[in-house]
Fold this protein.
Amino acid sequence: MIEIMELSKNFKKILAVDAINFHVAKGEIVGLVGENGAGKTTTLRMLATMLKPSSGTATVAGYDIVSQSSQVRGEIGILFGGEVGLYDRLTGRENIGYFAALNGMTSAETAASIDELIGLLDMEEYIDRRVGKFSRGMKQKVAIARSIVHQPSVMFFDEPTAGLDVSATRIVQDFILHCKQEEKAIIFSSHSMSEVEKLCDRLVIIHKGEIIEDGTVSQLKAKFGNDNLEDVFVQMVGDSNGN
Amino acid sequence: MGTKVIKLVFLKELKDIFRDRKTILMSLVIPLVIFPLLFYFMGSSMDRSAKQVEDNLTVTIVDSGNSSLSQYFGGVEEVKLVESSDIRADIRTGRILAAIEIPDTFDEDILAEIPTNLVIHYDNASQSSQMAYTVLSSMIEGYSKTVVAQRLLARDISDDILTPVVIDSRTTVAEEEGFGKLMLSMLLPLMLVIFSISGPMGVAVDLGAGEKERGTLEPLLTTQTGRLSLLWGKFFAITVMGLLSTISSLIGLLISMRQSGGLFQGSAVTLEPVTIVLIGLVTLLLTMFFGALELSISIYARSFKEAQTYISPLMLVSFIPTYATYLIDAKNIDTYFFHIPLANITCLLKEFLAGIYDLSHIAITFSWIIIYIIAAVLFARYMFSKEEVIFRT
Ligand SMILES: Nc1ncnc2c1ncn2[C@@H]1O[C@H](COP(=O)(O)OP(=O)(O)OP(=O)(O)O)[C@@H](O)[C@H]1O
Ligand SMILES: [Mg+2]
């Protein structure tokens, strides 16, 4: 579903992403793991066509991210951490509906899709109120619904649980697993090793823009002879710095 | 899909804006009431100082000879004579509005028919004192006329001899409209340019930098819609809001001109429909130009505050050619003025208000406005497509 080929990104002097290659299959959750500034967000932004690659390319659901960017965007859903990014003066339904329409859905399709999501995420009570007064958890649910309303086949999550409390984190994690059940291809970045271990089928370790490891959690643990993923991560990064 | 999406973005932005009380207050309500209030207070304070002088024309007359002139003033009801030991100080503090020094030889000089000198002291920095000076001068003028009339009578000559030519002035603009038209031709072009800058500003800041600050820009850019459709939708929403804001300012201006007791004293000005249409068109185009320019700046900024900081210099720079031409007379404006950005707008609006429709001036100015708009929209498009602008760190 996602095929990344020699993808690179330069910001003036900084080489943020350096000729990376990896792939993600249907129904697979791949964890993109690395230190601050490793290039995770930059990679995801390129895949989402917000940034143009300096060289290399990728295909998402069969479309090229450079030459078919609009089709790519029609196939992806994103949930980025930090600010949820909703319009405070619109209701929950209007927020979700706007993005559905921007993704080319008809109003009938939009209405049906939103109704289904309201049930799934349990939002009946407040969906027609303005988002401005929502709690963080309520906003998070609206943002989740917005990311998936157009039924994308690929999902990108960039530290989606950063700054969330336990129950909000649980909602997001359950949603990611729900996406997997729906056979979507998923890239998920996080700094929490326990979260990564819990959710991901496979890990791609990125360090200073380069991929230093690619394998399942158990493969990586076996390779480094350590059962603690955090220790394994520190060791990988340390080794890479040593070289 | 293109126009459908543009309409979608446009309608969403308008809905969003109309639900924002602060923006509605700033761009529609305040412009509506600001001029009626401002002109009302200006007018009533002018009225007040005129009334003050009328009711309370305090004057000191220094006249050791007790001349016929001081007796004449003694008989005038409006003048309140006040004793003063230090006239300059009393004028400064406002205890008296003016003082007249009459020479000892006043009556003798008048009788001998030689010119006599008289001194009026007043405070040329005070409006009331200046008015008092005007009133006193015209009283003395009146007194002089009676003296002249007596002299002529003594010689058996009719006083018609003093007015060989009688002027009967007929104005091209209805008399009662004159003042209003003059004010309008100075104020309106200036105001329209200012409105075109300030009208779209709040909304432009909200739809560019605001989108970044709230974190909505990134999800927006990952929808299937192209950036250009977003840009156009936003641009039209800004234009509409800018125009509504300008219209509400104009209605405010109109109300303030009709209002009696205000600065314009209810002087009614009527404009031809053609003039109104042309002025409206110029305003619309100018609003589009500034809207696009402000959107470009706003999308570059990282936050509301930054956007406002960047847009303020734009306003200041735009004021220079606008203020430089706002006193210019609508007749005989040199053609080169119509090539100076914004000065051309003010000049053309002035001509329209004066009823001058010079085809070459119109053609030159409109060509320039169209060029400005195209340049501003291209600039906005460039800004929307630049990663360095959208993801500025
Ligand atoms: N718009 C930009 N302009 C210039 N440099 C940038 C830009 N975005 C990212 N970078 C740089 O590129 C490198 C990779 O950044 P990126 O945000 O992709 O890292 P990350 O892995 O997401 O980090 P974090 O875990 O902190 O989110 C960093 O050195 C960063 O400073
Ligand atoms: Mg990041």
